From TrEMBL:
Ranges of residues in domain HTH cro/C1-type: 13-60
Segments crossing the lipid bilayer: none
SUPFAM superfamilies with a match to the protein in the record: lambda repressor-like DNA-binding domains, Periplasmic binding protein-like I
Gene3D superfamilies noted in UniProt: 3.40.50.2300, lambda repressor-like DNA-binding domains
InterPro entries xref list: Cro/C1-type_HTH (IPR001387), HTH_LacI (IPR000843), LacI/GalR-like_sensor (IPR046335), Lambda_DNA-bd_dom_sf (IPR010982), Peripla_BP_I (IPR028082)
Annotated source species: Ktedonospora formicarum
CDD domains linked to this entry: HTH_LacI (cd01392), PBP1_LacI_sugar_binding-like (cd06267)
Gene Ontology MF terms in the entry: DNA-binding transcription factor activity; transcription cis-regulatory region binding
Keyword Transferase: no
Residue ranges annotated for the HTH lacI-type domain, each copy included: 16-70
Identification of the protein by name: LacI family transcriptional regulator
SMART domains: HTH_LACI
A matching Pfam family: Peripla_BP_3
Length: 351
């Protein structure tokens, strides 16, 4: 609870407010608010003065005080590195729907792919008022996983194939998805298949690459490193990688791309270079975001159950919130190939 001070005009006790902290620290109330919300536009000296004033006055934010009073905030923190793909949107939709059904609210933080922000936001959420934490494709988990485990703070990771496999997480069959995509192209008659990976720092990227390589090996097709180009899951890089592969002296007749967003970029690059899809070039994506069914031609892709991934993560987190001592679960959901119109038998086999 908040400490009381006796500073009103009638000499009666009242709660400490940010205005009291501002007066004590000699700053504006908006500066106190920026410190409370961990904004960057406060210099170190001022921030320290505000924090000292809070300590001296016994200030506790109203939200935190209410959380302490009732033992739960019914708020779940969610960390993502961006919001600019259907992949994120669909997973977040699943999380939000499940939390709403259980009367929980969602607090979203976006790191913009900056590793230091991920650790900072985890610290803020776990020391502030969130009951639990969900992270989608974490980038900097080594900085805080051990602390979360020691504190027994409820958390779940989504699409995580990192260094520590004994953490609460929701994953999919990435390697099988890569294998299925490449096998499908081989079944159509393609033998020179280019692959645009995701950012290899993410665990799902080497797993999809391993699936691609396994399919080639099973069908006796030598792996050619020249046909592999590393992307970053964003559309401009999909365009750039496809442009590189399709400009080779002997370009591939098909491309397997590690996510749909990069596949959209690859389709654009192919058209700019004069390739017709699927007559001259077949393309397969990964994720099955809503836009994949509406591009031209509709994109063949490996479906990840994105909404279900979000719902499963929320359900698992609520279980840990109710009982932090619950056994660690690593839930694996199945991928499946969705065949549309972006793939065809190689032209050489039809002439």
């Amino acid at each position: 609870m908040n400490r009381k001070i006796t500073s009103d005009k009638n000499g009666l006790a009242r709660d400490v407010t940010i205005f009291d902290v501002a007066e004590k620290a000699g700053v504006s109330h908006s500066t106190v608010s920026r410190v409370l919300n961990n904004k960057n536009n406060v210099n170190v000296e001022t921030r320290e003065r505000v924090l000292q004033a809070m300590t001296q006055l016994g200030y506790v934010s109203n939200v935190s005080a209410r959380s302490l009073a009732r033992g739960s905030s019914h708020v779940v923190g969610l960390l993502v590195d961006h919001l600019n793909t259907g992949y994120m949107g669909e997973i977040i939709r699943g999380i939000d729907e499940e939390l709403e059904a259980h009367n929980y609210n969602l607090m979203l933080y976006t790191t913009h792919r900056q590793k230091y922000k991920e650790a900072a936001y985890v610290t803020k959420l776990t020391h502030d008022f969130a009951d639990g934490l969900i992270l989608i494709v974490p980038r900097n988990e080594k900085a805080y996983l051990e602390t979360l485990q020691q504190r027994k703070f409820p958390y779940v990771l989504i699409d995580y194939q990192g260094y520590n496999r004994y953490v609460p997480s929701i994953i999919t069959t990435n390697q099988k998805g890569g294998y299925d995509a490449c096998s499908y192209l081989i079944g159509l008659g393609h033998r020179r298949i280019g692959f645009i990976t995701g950012e290899m720092a993410y665990g799902c990227s080497p797993e999809r690459l391993a699936g691609y390589q396994a399919a080639l090996a099973e069908h006796g097709i030598p792996f050619d490193p020249e046909l592999v180009s590393e992307g970053n899951f964003l559309q401009p890089q999909g365009y750039h990688c496809a442009q590189h592969l399709l400009s080779l002296p002997k370009p591939p007749t098909a491309l397997f791309v590690s996510n749909d967003v990069m596949a959209f970029g690859a389709m654009e690059a192919a058209r700019d270079l004069g390739f017709r899809i699927p007559d001259d070039l077949s393309i397969i994506g990964f994720d099955d975001v809503p836009q994949a069914a509406h591009v031209h031609p509709p994109l063949t892709t490996v479906c990840q159950p994105l909404v279900e991934m979000g719902r499963s993560a929320a359900n698992l987190l609520l279980k840990y919130i109710a009982n932090p001592k619950s056994e660690v679960e690593r839930v694996e959901l199945s991928t499946r190939l969705v065949i549309r119109e972006s793939c065809h038998v190689p032209r050489a086999l039809t002439e």
